[in-house]
Design brief:
Layout lengths: L4 E4 L6 H15 L5 E20 L10 E9 L6 H4 L10 E4 L15 E3 L6 H20 L4 H15 L10 E20 L6 E5 L13 H9 L3 H4 L3 H10 L4 H5 L88
Parallel strand pairs: 2-5
Antiparallel strand pairs: 1-4, 2-3, 2-6, 6-7
Helix pairs in contact: 3-4
Length: 340
């Protein structure tokens, strides 16, 4: 069952604000034939792992115990390293209600908003860092060459964003693990004479910024265009499969943004509507989606928080389908540096 409320590290700009910025930049950088054809609000799942470690102290009786945080990929798709850039924003998260958002439950295909599903339980995330650090300790115990052990430590430091003063021997356990989501706008621009462009942004300032840091997500969807639908929350996939009926392109219309100015449903109750950067859900007229909702459906149970299931058993890849086949984004969008 989809949660009623989720924790996020920040809110996103409204559909109209970000859509206008993307369309303007695409027309300027690519040309008048560029067309913003897909725009999804995507909630990416992460585990926030707080851990404790001890540092060397110059005072024998001193207490140099410190705390640090790492973010782990909730999709268990090896994106841990890329997620470390968002750690500071997770110190103070906010709760939002999902009730106002369109997940495409009324018909085939994905809606404007896509909630990606955690693929492993919390207990698996709690074990990952201790297990990897134990490997370092074991490597030193069996007298592996220093170059091998040092290389392994460097890899762990990059993957988990370990502090400079951290030493594997000083690890003192995991303090807390929590689930939260990182929101992104994931988008597509189509061009008549070249391949379509894929990308992800979190703010209007990211539009046209090749150094925004979100290229990892653009590449993740570009490498396998079925991922957006395949990792969508199980309740979204089930509702899309059960709906049948007309193609969602007929149901939702084109990528216009006129509904954002005043006809959106109310914002989640936790947030005010001050300013243009308040995230709000568009009307049906504002939806750009098309195609059927069953092409890349992944069958299987919703991942329980405390039950250790094999993520592979929850995923049924559909290599011959793409985003448009599930009402998402056939070729979702671009990394902006590629079109400047």
């Amino acid at each position: 069952m989809m949660p009623d409320v989720i924790a996020v590290d920040r809110m996103l700009p409204s559909t109209g604000a970000i859509g206008h910025a993307l369309e303007s930049y695409a027309a300027e950088a690519v040309g008048p034939d560029a067309d913003l054809t897909r725009l999804h609000r995507v909630y990416y799942p992460v585990f926030r792992v707080e851990y404790r470690y001890e540092q060397d102290s110059r005072i024998p009786w001193g207490n140099d115990t410190s705390h640090a945080v790492t973010l782990l990929d909730g999709l268990w798709a090896d994106n841990h390293a890329a997620l470390q850039q968002y750690r500071s924003g997770t110190d103070a998260v906010e709760s939002i209600s999902l009730e106002p958002y369109d997940f495409g439950r009324d018909g085939p295909g994905l809606g404007r908003t896509v909630l990606l599903d955690f693929q492993v339980p919390t207990q698996r995330a709690r074990r990952l860092l201790p297990e990897r650090l134990a490997d370092v300790t074991e490597s030193r115990r069996i007298d592996d060459p220093d170059s091998i052990t040092s290389s392994f430590v460097e890899e762990l430091t990059e993957t988990f964003g370990l502090p400079p003063a951290f030493e594997p021997e000083g690890f003192d356990g995991v303090v807390n693990v929590s689930r939260l989501y990182l929101p992104f706008w994931v988008c597509e621009v189509t061009r008549s004479d070249e391949r379509d462009l894929i990308g992800a942004v979190r703010d209007i300032a990211d539009v046209g910024d090749g150094d925004s840091g979100h290229e990892w997500l653009s590449a993740f969807f570009r490498e396998d265009r079925s991922r957006l639908a395949r990792y969508a929350h199980a309740s979204i996939r089930r509702s899309g499969a059960d709906a049948g009926g007309t193609d969602s392109s007929e149901r939702r219309g084109s990528t216009t943004h006129e509904g954002d100015a005043g006809s959106d449903p109310e914002t989640p109750p936790e947030r005010s509507t001050e300013g243009e950067n308040t995230e709000r859900e568009p009307t049906d007229a504002d939806q750009p989606l098309d195609a059927t909702g069953t092409g890349a459906e992944r069958t299987g149970p919703v991942q329980p928080e405390d039950v250790d299931l094999d993520a592979g058993s929850l995923v049924e890849p559909s290599p011959n389908r793409c985003f448009a086949d599930v009402g998402g984004m056939e070729r979702i969008y671009f990394h902006y540096s590629t079109i400047v």
